[in-house]
Amino acid sequence: MFSLTSSHQYYLYQHPTDMRKGFDSLSGIVRNELGRNPMDGGVYVFLNKLGNLIKLLHWESGGFTLYYKRLERGVFERPAVDGALMLSWSELMLIVEGIRLDSVRKKVRYQLNKAVF
């Protein structure tokens, strides 16, 4: 069941990833290279070297879910940042739909600050 929404946190892994990797290997990248817990509810986004394959790793109740998409033509945009980049749901959708992030102008919206108590 596809259950990703704007309420999730999305993390784009910036280095090209071997798309033969499965649940365990991608979880290892999240844990060892990003220093995060792959079971924290975040969605981890991986792209291959050519940029035509994307995988999303997400922990749901009871196990991992892996979403995989291959483009027949074109590439996914990879924002130029080192390490991991936190994405919003809308930014992820723009990447998946092939819309250039630098050409999008976003209007200011109210955002609730998440204070730690």
Task: Describe what you observe in this structure.
The protein has 117 residues and is of the alpha+beta class. The chain has one domain (10-101). It contains two helices and five strands; from the N terminus they run E-H-E-E-E-E-H. It has helices spanning 23-32, 89-97, and strands at residues 10-13, 43-47, 53-60, 63-70, 84-87. The chain has a five-stranded mixed beta sheet. A hairpin with a 2-residue loop joins strand 3 and strand 4 (63-70). The chain is globular.
Concise account of the structure shown:
This protein has 117 residues and is an alpha+beta fold. It contains 2 helices and 5 strands, in the order E-H-E-E-E-E-H. It has one domain.
- Rg: 14 Å
Inertia-based shape: globular
Kindly state the number of beta strands. Answer: 5
Mean pLDDT: 88
State the secondary-structure class. Answer: alpha+beta
Taken as a percent bin, the fraction of beta residues is: 15-25%
Q: What is the N-to-C succession of helices and strands?
A: EHEEEEH
With helices defined by DSSP (H or I, 4 residues minimum), what is the helix count? Answer: 2
Poorly predicted runs: none
Number of domains: 1
